[in-house]
Amino acid sequence: MIPNQWYPILPAEEVRNDKPTGVRRMGQELVLWRDLDGNLVCQGARCPHKGANLADGRMKGNSVECPYHGFRYGPDGGCKAIPSLGSEARIPGSLRVPVHPVQEAHGLVWLWWGEERAGLPDIQAAPEVADNPKVHSTLHWTRPVHYTRYIESLLEFYHITYVHRDHWFNYIDYLFLYGTPRKLGLDGKERYLSATKIVNHHLETDTERQTLRYSFDHQDEADPKNTTHYVITFTFPCQVHVQTEQFEATSWLVPIDDGHTEHILRWYEYPAFKPLLRSEKLRRVLPWMSLYMEKWIQDVQDVRIMERQEPKISEGGVSKFTPVDELNAKYLAMRSRLIQEAAEPKAAKETPKETGKETAKEKETAADPLPAAGAPEPAGKHPAPANGRRAPKAAANGEGLAAARASGTR
Ligand code: FES
Ligand SMILES: [Fe+2]
User: Fold this and answer.
1) Separation of 316 CA from ligand 2 center, angstroms?
2) How far is the CA of 32 from the centre of ligand 1 (A)?
3) Which of 48, 235, 259, 398 is such that its CA lies 20 to 30 A from the CA of 406?
4) Are residues 188 and 279 in the same domain?
């Protein structure tokens, strides 16, 4: 995972003041709760006494009480009570749980994962997410895949023809999203399956905001009128916003550990139905249905592929990309740079560096896997790993960093 970033970990409404909530993120068990003033608290969930999980405990005044022997920990992480020693017990200051910086923004709880700093940077969210006025609903679930593979699956949409073609529920997409009114939507499946080519692709990089914006047309070569225009906006560390004329959604693919990722998915109201649905509640119904459809059908189809991908973790050099994988290549290059920067000693970070521009390393990694469009591959050129590049050593990915080491998560 990329250190020194804000990661959304769950919807803010799930953190309560009457009971602790447990989540596993960034390779750590965490407990979240609200103090008596409603402020968010996020702590390491392991009780230092004998290692019980505080998320299984309960709230007691302004503290969380361990389910095993009732030790209580306040918002500052310090132990406030050891019932078995009585109310006069002298409690050592070292008896405490780690407290992690958290903030509420865009309806989610965000965890700062990285070095301690006097002033933490702002939470990154593309304007498409931060300033989006549309009514929306949010749902989340866990999958047994690494976050790099999960993110990759949302950085392109030309897999849809193959992965999402054969499920009865897709008929809803076929009818409403792809079918033409002239044919009462019945031509939807055919139109969905025949749009296989990506054209007019364009990638913009905003290094300052750690945002990549990729637009393209998904087109039927035989019938260019059958085209869907997409804009995918990726913001580090894990936010993918997808927009077409018909629908709009934001995914956060949050690391749990090397084998699992939490998918927090937000679906926005459908512009086509807005004039028909006056009440906000009604406008939430279709996004809810789409979220459940994603959770139980389309996302499951994606996960079936991802679970069997090799290697489990994606990084520069492991894939043989084509020109339309530009966004994927750029994501991996920037991810690798951010991990390296976080691992650099402080002094090196203070030297002036390029801003708003690609670094030489990024240029090299992003450009390397992309042959010219339509260029035939030279016969016999099937090096392993792809492109003749060696897969970068794990050590080069900043694993020495304290946070990453503590969690053992990449
Ligand atoms: S393990 Fe938590 S109080 Fe004993
Ligand atoms: Fe998919």
Assistant:
1) 22
2) 17
3) 235
4) yes
Instruction: Give the per-residue pLDDT at 362.
Output: 56
Sign of CA dihedral 27, 28, 33, 35: negative
CA–CA distance, 183 with 181 (Å, rounded to integer): 5
User: Alpha-carbon distance 65 to 128, whole Å?
Assistant: 40
- What is the domain extent for residue 108? 5-113
Q: Is 248 helix (H, G, I), strand (E, B) or coil?
A: strand
Global pTM reads 0.86
Q: State whether 135 and 182 are in the same domain.
A: yes
Do both 272 and 370 map to the same domain?
no
Of 266, 24, 20, 257, the residue nearest 140 (C-alpha):
266
Say how many Å lie between the CA of residue 367 and the centre of ligand 2: 25
> What's the pLDDT tens digit per position in 285-337?
989 999 999 999 999 999 999 999 999 999 999 999 999 999 999 999 999 99
Q: Which of 66, 80, 97 to mutate to test the pocket of ligand 1 (most atoms within 8 A of CB)?
A: 66
Residue with tokens 């009818």: 175
Does residue 209's CB lie within 6 angstroms of at least one atom of ligand 1? Answer: no
Same domain, 20 and 71: yes
Ligand 1 mean position, distance from CA 81 (Å): 11
Q: What is the rounded CA–CA span in Å between residue 380 and residue 389?
A: 16
